[in-house]
UniProtKB/TrEMBL annotation:
Residues of the DNA-directed DNA polymerase family A palm domain: 654-861
Pfam families: 5_3_exonuc (PF01367), 5_3_exonuc_N (PF02739), DNA_pol_A (PF00476), DNA_polI_exo1 (PF22619)
Ranges annotated as spanning the membrane: none
Domain 3'-5' exonuclease as annotated: residue spans: 309-485
Keyword Transferase recorded: yes
Naturally occurring in which organism (per UniProt): Actinoplanes ianthinogenes
SUPFAM superfamilies per record: 5' to 3' exonuclease, C-terminal subdomain, DNA/RNA polymerases, PIN domain-like, Ribonuclease H-like
Record-linked Gene3D superfamilies: 3.30.70.370, 5' to 3' exonuclease, C-terminal subdomain (1.10.150.20), 5'-nuclease (3.40.50.1010), Ribonuclease H-like superfamily/Ribonuclease H (3.30.420.10), Taq DNA Polymerase, Chain T, domain 4 (1.20.1060.10)
Enzyme class: transferase
Reactions mediated catalytically: DNA(n) + a 2'-deoxyribonucleoside 5'-triphosphate = DNA(n+1) + diphosphate
The protein's name: DNA polymerase I
Leader sequence residues: none
Name of the gene encoding the protein in the UniProt record: polA
Alphabetized UniProt keyword annotations: DNA damage, DNA repair, DNA replication, DNA-binding, DNA-directed DNA polymerase, Exonuclease, Hydrolase, Nuclease, Nucleotidyltransferase, Transferase
SMART domains: 35EXOc, 53EXOc, HhH2, POLAc
Length: 898
DNA sequence: ATTAAGACGTA
DNA sequence: CGTACGTCTTAATG
């Protein structure tokens, strides 16, 4: 290549058209696996891809696929691309295999509803040119020729899968006698049979070019249509309408909204293991050799040549550095300090540029100019920043008085969306997994990292480490963006439109915290402590000696050996002493020790909850939990330090703890707003079960309504016991409840539970069909997806181990339901937050408890807030059943509950 | 000092 | 033999 080696080169592929070319280029009968899967198109496509990688050496790659045969063009012209024969059966299914190849090669795929791949390519090519990239497009569709220009080359496959024409502007002009900018004009006149666009009969490339060049384009030809002589002229005048139609339809759209930009698709190499497995399955032996010999050759190059020049900035140097290095292009940002409890303190900030230098500075050692520059830079939404775990940084910046905006990607959130089942999303681990780099400054010098720091002779290892993290974050963002883009945009949208903005909302909530009545908490603590002591004494007295009630091990000895009570359910260490089992034992034996024991457990648990809360009250008299956004595999949030999502509510004594969460000084009340039966509503929506949908739309008490159906009685004849049983079923369904589990929970026989479930599904068969279908589909895809496309991968669905497999099946049926509920309340939180801002209300959102939001109501805003919250939560996402919201207010959390 | 298991609170 | 979490306690490791 004659181009400057540092110019990024973007390879854009039209997936469908190349696959189709490959299919017809290679005899289908010669390419199939032992299992009968046809692979000629996969083979041909992959072969072309490898050739292009070898010959073009792109630094960035993306493939676009048509989503369907329908597009805005078929809407305008019903016969667009009509007349194409049905997709041949052996071609079916090969596209998804090609997508698997791309996935293994970590090449992102982008699609756009209602548009063709060529439009996506035209948009990306346009953006890439604006960014100064060299562009190579490969498409089997000649429409792409209109995109050729300086630095934009079209690779047009001809004859088989090994030869392409390099269609530069010069080549196009030589072949068609018009420049690429006039290619559309020519195509409109001549027609394009593959698109079923007829042109002017009798007019070919030469005549069309003659006219276009004579009259200065199609406009001129049309303006002078009466001057054109001869048969061809007559023909043109008779077919002007078609020409205009063609011209309108063959224009490629260059300004689509896409989930990624050309800069995001930097290619960082392939997933070796996945390629191995896939090529084994496809029986691509030779191709694997070719791929590997090419990839092995470029790999070292890709891994090295990474020179991070770092610099520790002193006071007075920061403003200038930022202006010079951190303007338009995204930079990586890494922050050190202490974080948590809704605040934080920054001790160091590192900024790394994509290919240039990195810098570190101490936020406490800035001069006035620097301080202003850093504040403006951090707050500027037009200065793109990439960071790993933005929320703590945001809180620490806020504590320093800095606003923070312009975060285009959070690599922790991106990694979570890509694989939500991971244990953690530590930057070091992600760098190793996705970048294959050890994130250590003093890593062995194996050419992976060339660090040349300007350290002034000082020991700047810590600062270098932070700079390296900033740089790794930036690189990781590229890889993860590509990773997330392989599903056609859903994950990217979740990141950009849900998780990223939600992090900001959560930061606000954590920063505010919720007021706690510490005096009352202390009283509670004393009360529970006394109860614990009393229960403990009573238990010791009954048994006749002292022992540790908190030790399940000692308890087992006492219950099952010394007191010779009946054995309970087996666990690893013997027999369980959990509350359910102890209840059963008590019912059977009436051993008074059990009652004291249960009482002890209850009180000890409550006491420890209160202890924990007391310890976590901040100086401002409020409790600031931390909401974790990357923990729950289903997409839910979790709450830690303290966990405010498991504050007792079921028992009266437990609810006493809720009274400790009170309204803050300047405010009037607490308000809770929760979704009623959101998971069942999602099941009704997803399953489309008409009876279930009707039960919701009836407006009656949902559990009673379903019970009335199941037991064939009028709504007002449903007994409390019938309602209780069906309520248990309703709740259990989304968890994969078995008849055994149901019988256990309701203390009825297994037969009775079976009959109950049978009768339930008799009435709500759509639900069973849906649940079965979800598991089946998940088995095929390898993952489940929520209404917003949030994925959860469940490899255990194909496990040989029955227990693991069945566990995965229950996860598969639960994940879309629980996850969709999580999606909905997240969207609701964003909407509520936005509405609160625009309404000018002073009330604020404090907590989220999965299907409930807790607010602090400013004086006089109760009604307005309720209206706002009902509107935004109720309208968060349209389902085929209403999203019902119930609202309550009170001076404390218990009083606000309903 | 860290880890695992058991128990139990919430949705 | 019901999903998703976090925390506390004990008891066993280092």
């Amino acid at each position: 290549m004659s181009d400057d080696a540092t110019t990024p080169r973007l390879l854009l592929l039209d997936g469908h058209s190349l696959a189709y070319r490959a299919y017809f280029a290679l005899p289908v009968e010669n390419f199939s696996t032992a299992t009968g899967q046809h692979t000629n198109a996969v083979f041909g496509f992959t072969s072309m891809l490898i050739n292009m990688l070898r010959d073009e050496k792109p630094t960035h790659i993306v493939v676009s696929f048509d989503l369907s045969r329908k597009s805005f063009r078929t809407e305008k012209y019903a016969d667009y691309k009509a007349g194409r024969s049905e997709t041949p059966a052996p071609f079916q299914g090969q596209v998804s295999l090609i997508q698997e190849v791309l996935e293994a090669l970590r090449i992102p795929v982008v699609t756009k509803e209602n548009y063709e791949a060529d439009d996506v390519i035209a948009t990306l090519a346009t953006q890439a040119r604006a960014a100064g990239m060299e562009v190579i497009i490969s498409s089997g569709d000649r429409d792409a020729f209109q995109l050729a220009e300086e630095h934009v080359t079209i690779l047009y496959p001809v004859r088989g899968v090994s030869e392409v024409w390099r269609m530069t502007p010069e080549a196009i002009e030589a072949k068609y006698f018009v420049p690429p900018s006039r290619y559309r004009d020519k195509a409109a006149l001549v027609g394009e049979s593959s698109d079923n666009l007829t042109g002017v009969p009798g007019v070919g490339d030469k005549t069309a070019a003659k006219w276009i060049n004579e009259y200065g384009g199609l406009d001129g030809v049309i303006a002078n249509v009466d001057k054109i002589k001869g048969k061809a002229g007559e023909s043109l005048r008779a077919h002007l309408a078609e020409v205009m139609r063609n011209y309108e339809l063959n224009a490629l759209i260059r300004d689509l909204e896409l989930p990624l930009r050309p800069e995001d698709v930097r290619w960082h190499g392939w997933d070796r293991e996945a390629v191995h497995q896939l090529f084994d399955a496809l029986e691509f032996r030779v191709l694997r050799e070719r791929l590997y010999s090419y990839l092995e050759a470029v790999e070292p190059e890709a891994e090295s040549g990474f020179d991070l020049a770092g610099q520790v900035l002193r006071a007075g140097e920061v403003a200038g550095w930022l202006t010079e290095h951190a303007a338009a292009a995204p930079v990586g940002l890494a922050v050190t300090g202490s974080f948590g409890r809704g605040t934080g303190q920054v001790t160091g900030i590192a900024v790394a540029t994509g290919s240039g230098p990195a810098a570190w500075f101490d936020p406490a050692a800035l001069d006035e100019t620097d301080e202003r520059a850093v504040a403006a830079w951090l707050a500027d939404p037009a200065r793109p920043k990439v960071i790993h775990d933005a929320k703590p940084a945001l809180l620490a910046f806020r504590a320093h008085g800095w606003a923070f905006d312009g975060v285009t990607t959070d690599t922790a959130l991106a990694a979570y969306l890509a694989k939500p089942d991971q244990r953690g999303y530590d930057l070091t681990d992600l760098a190793l997994r996705y970048l294959k780099r050890e994130l250590k400054v003093d890593a062995p010098d194996d050419g992976q990292l060339a660090l040349s720091f300007d350290g002034d002779g000082q020991d700047t290892a810590a600062e270098e480490g932070v700079m390296l993290r900033a740089r790794a974050t930036l690189d990781l963002a590229d890889v993860l963006t590509a990773e997330l883009s392989r599903d056609g945009g859903a994950s990217q949208r979740l990141l950009a439109e849900v998780e990223l903005p939600l992090a900001v909302v959560l930061a606000e909530m954590e920063s505010k915290g919720i007021a706690a009545d510490t005096g009352y908490l202390s009283e509670l603590e004393a009360t529970f402590a006394a109860e614990v002591k009393a229960a403990q004494q009573a238990a010791h007295e009954v048994h006749g000696r002292e022992f540790n009630l908190g030790s399940p091990k000692q308890l087992q000895e006492i219950l099952f050996v010394e007191r010779n009570l009946p054995k309970t359910r087996k666990i690893k260490s013997g027999y369980t002493t959990d509350a359910d089992s102890l209840q059963d034992l008590f019912a059977k034996t009436e051993d008074p020790l059990l009652a004291h024991l249960l009482r002890y457990r209850d009180m000890a648990k409550l006491k420890s909850t209160v202890d924990g809360l007391l310890k976590s009250v901040s100086d401002d008299g409020r409790i600031h939990t931390t909401f974790n956004q990357t923990v729950a595999a289903t997409g839910r949030l979790s709450s830690t330090d303290p966990n405010l999502q498991n504050i007792p509510i079921r028992t009266e004594e437990g609810r006493r703890i809720r009274r400790a969460f009170v309204v803050g000084g300047e405010f009037e009340q607490l308000m809770t707003a929760d979704y009623s039966q959101i998971e069942m509503r999602i099941m009704a929506h997803l399953s489309k079960d008409e009876a279930l949908i009707a039960a919701f739309n009836s407006g009656a008490d949902f559990h009673a309504a379903t019970a009335s159906s199941v037991f064939h009685v009028e709504l007002d004849q449903v007994t409390a016991d019938q309602r209780r049983k069906i309520k248990a079923m309703n709740y259990g369904l989304a968890y994969g409840l078995s008849s055994f589990g149901l019988s256990n929970q309701l203390t009825i026989s297994n037969d009775e539970a079976k009959a109950l479930m049978e009768e339930y599904f008799q009435r709500f068969g759509g639900v069973r069909d849906y649940l079965k279908a979800v598991v089946l589909q998940a088995g095929k895809d390898g993952y489940t997806a929520t209404i917003l496309g949030r994925r959860r991968y469940l490899p255990d669905l194909s496990s040989d181990n029955r227990q693991r497999r069945e566990m995965a099946e229950r996860m598969a049926l639960n994940a879309p339901i629980q996850g969709s509920a999580a999606d909905i309340i997240k969207v609701a939180m964003l909407k509520v937050d936005a509405a609160l801002r625009s309404s000018g209300l002073s009330s604020r959102m404090l907590l989220q408890v999965h299907d409930e939001l807790v607010f602090e109501v400013a004086p006089g805003e109760r009604d307005a807030l309720e209206e706002l919250v009902r509107r935004e939560m109720g309208g968060a996402y349209p389902l085929s059943v209403p999203l019902e919201v119930s609202v309550g207010t009170g001076r404390d959390w218990n009083g606000a509950d309903h």
